[in-house]
Specification:
By secondary structure, this protein is of the alpha/beta class. The relative contact order is 0.19.
Length: 176
Amino acid sequence: MIRRLAAIDEATRLTQSKVAADLLCSTDVFSSARSVMVFLSMPGEIDTTPVIQKVLQSDKRLCAPRVRWAERLMDVIEVSDVDKELLRSSRGYAEPSGKLIVEKSSIDLVLVPGLAFDTWGRRLGRGMGFYDRFLTGIAIVSCGYAFDEQVVSIVPADDHDVLMSMLVTPERVRHF
């Protein structure tokens, strides 16, 4: 899957990211959400920048995860100005610098990254379990957000793996 992602050229990645954002933002789930948590894309992943822009344009509350590596947990941080509040971490990825920690129970929609997703709502992450721990025990719409190349027929899953509520790719929206 890492090779599949690496094979997507930058122009296609950006174009397909915009298409997926338009599709996501046309859903009733997005329309009714007041607070949206968006992952901050790593190199090669679907770009969440178009979604971030649409969240801010629609006067929804934008939140992003900040990782506490030692505890293997994520805090949810409100972001109101992406130019000032998103910084590169020491690990090389973007994270919010703000101080306002948001209660996860107040979030209506969470975009979830992954290496692969299947047509049953299962997700293959990067092996650290951050999103599974974050999503366990709360009623939030969890939306896998990926390229169509990342959708496979079956993803192996364990009991602790959290199923997605929906999956958005540039070609379609799936509800589970």
